[in-house]
Amino acid sequence: QVQAIFTMIIAYFVLGERPGRAQIVGAAIAFDGIGFIALDRLEGLILFPMVLTLLAAVAWGIANVLTKLAGKVDPVAFIVWGSLWAVPPLFVLSYLVEGGDVLVEFVTKPDLSTFAMLAFLSYVATLFGIGSWTWLLTRHPASTVAPFTLLVPITGLLSGWLVLGETISGLEVFGGLLVITGLAVSVFARSPAA
Fold first, then answer.
1. Nearest to 183 by CA among 142, 152, 132, 147
2. Which of 40, 44, 50, 88 is the most buried (most CB within 10 A)?
3. How far, in whole angstroms, is CA 140 from its chain's centroid?
4. Does residue 194 lie within any of the structural domains?
5. Nearest-CA neighbor of 3 among 46, 66, 55?
6. What whole-number distance in Å separates Cα of residue 188 and Cα of residue 137?
7. Is 193 part of a structural domain of the chain?
């Protein structure tokens, strides 16, 4: 979730958006919370996947700033057309990583769970989730919107607990509370631009 920090930094240099002190302090508190959540999950950390994750976070930060540069656009059209460009490289990547058999099976033997997954990812996650994100980014400073992605790990933890019966450690609860506190400071505290 370091993309929130990358978004704020890139927006500062590219868009001239200067986050206020409260936004910086709130983002730092929330980011500390993510650190506490991650402490329980760091076993067997491998460098290459970590580097890829950081590069993905930088790419997301760049995409957020490009979305802001697009101006006030129709979020649904923006997402649909943007998503079309992703299909060819993702099919190639899927073929390279998973092999052709997986793609053939996906196309020739679809089941109800496949369609349910596609419907959720297409309509709920992409059109609603990313469409709302695009709408927010085109109307508010990136430094105000980006920190809300820090809620993603909390949502994942709670979903795992509610749906799958996974346990949440005390450290993860503490981290989640820090994230929520940091977001509250960032959003509700008013301060002049730094």
1. 147
2. 40
3. 17
4. no
5. 55
6. 18
7. no
